[in-house]
Amino acid sequence: MSAHQAMLSPDELEAALRAVGAARYHNLHPFHARLHGGKARRSEVQAWALNRYCYQSMIPIKDATVLTRIGDSAMRREWRHRIEDHDGQAAGDGGIERWLKLTDSLGFSRDYVISTQGILPATRFAVEAYVHFCAEKSLLEAIASSLTELFSPQIISDRVSGMLAHYDYVSRDTLAYFAARPVQARRDSDFALAYVKTHATTPQTQALAIKALEFKCDVLWVQLDALWGAYVEGHLPPGVWDPAALHEGQMRQKVAL
Questions:
Q1: Number of domains in the chain
Q2: CA dist 70 to 75, 135, 141, 142, 199, Å?
Q3: pLDDT tens across 37-63, in order?
């Protein structure tokens, strides 16, 4: 959308945002087709879970930066749900802990996962770029960037059903992170969409909201590009997790390639 285009109605703006997801969401990436279709080697599943932890662990930090910029107490209470969903209300609770149970089940040392020392450079750059975006752009843009959650319930359904059907080393228990996410994502995206439709009140701010969502789609897409190049095609950058050259402290058990 050009900043010089006519003002969209709220419903037209929603349609434009949903069109971004239809064209650019990472469910369209070939890595996801490979992962969900049972074509991924175990080492690819492991690399995906290891690298995705970096993204998951930074989501509450991203949301905390947004929280500091919200002046309305009712809105802050609403936004805090996002942090609580990932960090939990107590030790051993929350989405990050459930993601670590997935990496545990795939054989990784928890200390190694938390250190993020073996993740791909593109993963780190993309995740850091997202946190900086939400800290430096307008509140409208930060909130609009979260609207990838509009599209996540379907990809979660495909991911869980596909992985359970094709990989005997995962279970509903090890994929427990995804059980709560569709409900959380719908709640959060409903709130964010209402905010964007209410506050994007000029062609210029509507264009910024759409571009913010495109940026977030790029953040998710580039992480899968990096996984494909490194673990499908075998072009490993220096210093990342290498399933063929294990080092003490990385794994809890021998990797099956």
A1: 1
A2: 7, 12, 13, 11, 14
A3: 999 999 999 999 999 999 999 999 999
Structure tokens at 93: 């609770």
CA quadruple 167, 158, 29, 110: dihedral sign: negative
Structural domain span for residue 193:
10-232
**Phi and psi angles of residue 74, each rounded to the nearest 5 degrees, phi first:** -65, -40
Please indicate, yes or no, if residue 68 is contained in any of the structural domains. Answer: yes
Q: Quote the CA–CA distance of 48 and 76 in Å, as a whole number.
A: 32
pLDDT tens by residue, 19-43: 999 999 999 999 999 999 999 999 9
Euclidean distance between CA atoms 179 and 96, whole angstroms: 13
Residues 6+ apart with CB under 8 A from 126: 55, 219, 222, 223, 226
Check which CATH number belongs to the domain holding 180 and give it: 1.20.910.10
Q: Of 257, 147, 148, 239, which Cα lies nearest the Cα of 200?
A: 147
What are the residues whose beta carbons fall under 8 Å from the beta carbon of 142, sequence distance 6 or more?
65, 66, 69, 133, 134, 135, 212
Contact between 126 and 132 (Cβ < 8 Å):
no
pTM above 0.85, yes or no: yes
